[in-house]
Design a protein that fits this description.
Elements (H helix, E strand, L loop, with lengths): L1 E3 L2 E3 L15 H28 L3 H6 L12 H8 L1 H12 L2
Antiparallel strand pairs: 1-2
């Protein structure tokens, strides 16, 4: 025990050598939980992107995509060539 300002206290953590700085079981459990949580957050964005670049008939067959079966930019072409999209953008920017 060390004395600090006349009070005795125990050190918060023992100093260990680099050889003993391995991940413990609780560290692995926390790591797995964090990775699963990160995947749960990222997957909906990934799936939405895959749906946006897939043909409509593929999405109708299976809306949950892990890998794209075919690539199609028809949705982007439709949105960017639609006059209503341009009007909506102008309306949106006029309020800023």
């Amino acid at each position: 025990m060390k004395k600090l300002n006349g009070l005795e206290h125990l050190p918060l953590r023992r100093k260990t050598s680099n050889a003993n700085n391995r991940l413990g079981t609780i560290d692995w459990v926390i790591l797995v939980i964090l990775v699963l949580f990160a995947l749960m957050i990222i997957f909906p964005f990934y799936n939405a992107f895959l749906i946006s670049i897939s043909p409509q008939r593929i999405v109708d067959e299976n809306p949950l995509l892990l890998v794209p079966k075919e690539l199609s930019l028809e949705a982007y072409k439709y949105v960017l060539t639609n006059k209503l999209f341009g009007m909506a953008l102008r309306l949106r920017w006029s309020y800023l």
